[in-house]
Design a protein that fits this description.
Belongs to the class-IV pyridoxal-phosphate-dependent aminotransferase family. By secondary structure, the protein is an alpha+beta fold. It has 9 helices and 16 strands.
């Protein structure tokens, strides 16, 4: 009774964290079945995950991801992750990845409520190579459409069970939005809420830049706290830039000097077109992107 892992890349690495058994993490074959059909990760998307960048054999901004992972588990009422076990599994995965030749990659922590039949949580650490589309979008930018997310900006107060602020496995709507954009010949989406308020991308945080000021939407508006955005803003402040977290509208994005989608593995993707309107590359673009790379790979 297991779901098939369809990975065909012989360089993929997988580690079973085995949080329920209390046993040490174990390297597993990524081409064989590992998830039982009654695991709530597959059955209901009931769990959390983190995706991190691997460069030069090391996970970047690990502390930020670890803290968000622990916070997400708390929001879902999952048992508190044994962080040392996850770090041990990460070291094992990195060592195995290095043995296979290493290189830039995405490392993921996946933590599920586990099997419905046993009530025991499950978890895995995986590594896979950085995709060509990630590199292309970093280098060439993205054409983007805005799309209503479909809930009120007061959702955190009205519906505390909405898990705003947790990076859950329930990404079906986000992936559907990206497929819809692709069907229109576009690369990505920026979600908006009431009154054209900007939220986030399906897999990214929005950053608008004018002059030497960076702005990102308020997290109180139902935005997942972005690890790359946090690292970027911290570095930018040290370099003399102004940073703000405040409400943004679509009109604000159009009026900004430049707009970027930032995330852990892609790092940065400049928005070259927004709802059919071209956004020229600003004079500060090289500086913004250099800061983003430095912050993401620190």
């Amino acid at each position: 009774m297991s779901a098939i892992n369809t990975s065909e890349n012989p360089r993929d690495i997988a580690v079973d964290v085995r949080p329920a058994e209390g046993l040490p993490p174990e390297i597993i074959d990524p081409t064989v079945p590992v998830i039982y059909i009654d695991d709530l990760a597959a059955r209901r998307g009931d769990g959390i995950f983190e995706t991190m960048m691997v460069r030069a054999g090391r996970v970047r901004n690990l502390d930020l991801h670890r803290d968000r992972f622990v916070r997400g588990a708390s929001l879902l009422d999952l048992p508190a992750p044994e962080v040392d076990r996850w770090l041990q599994a990460t070291d094992m995965a990195l060592s195995a990845w290095d043995d296979l030749g290493g290189g830039e990659a995405a490392l993921r922590w996946m933590y599920s409520r586990g099997r419905e039949s046993t009530g025991s949580v499950t978890g895995w650490v995986t590594i896979s190579a950085e995709s060509p589309s990630v590199v292309r979008q970093r280098e060439q930018g993205v054409r983007v459409m805005t799309a209503h997310r479909g809930f009120s900006l007061s959702i955190s107060d009205d519906s505390p069970w909405a898990l705003v602020g947790a990076k859950t496995l329930s990404y079906a709507m986000n992936m559907a939005a990206l497929r819809h954009a692709a069907s229109r010949g576009l690369d990505d989406v920026i979600f908006i809420g009431d009154d054209d308020r900007v939220l986030e991308g399906p897999t990214s945080t929005v950053v608008a830049v004018t002059g030497r000021t960076m702005v990102t939407p308020s997290q109180q508006a139902g935005v997942l706290p972005g690890t790359t955005q946090a690292a970027l803003f911290a570095l930018a402040r040290r370099r003399g830039w102004e940073t703000e977290q405040r409400p943004l509208t679509v009109a604000d994005l159009r009026a900004a000097g430049g707009v970027w989608l930032v995330s852990s593995v892609r790092i940065h993707a400049r928005v070259t077109e927004l709802d059919g309107v071209e956004l020229p590359r600003p004079a500060t673009a090289d500086d913004v992107e250099a800061l983003a790379v430095e912050a993401a790979t620190a």
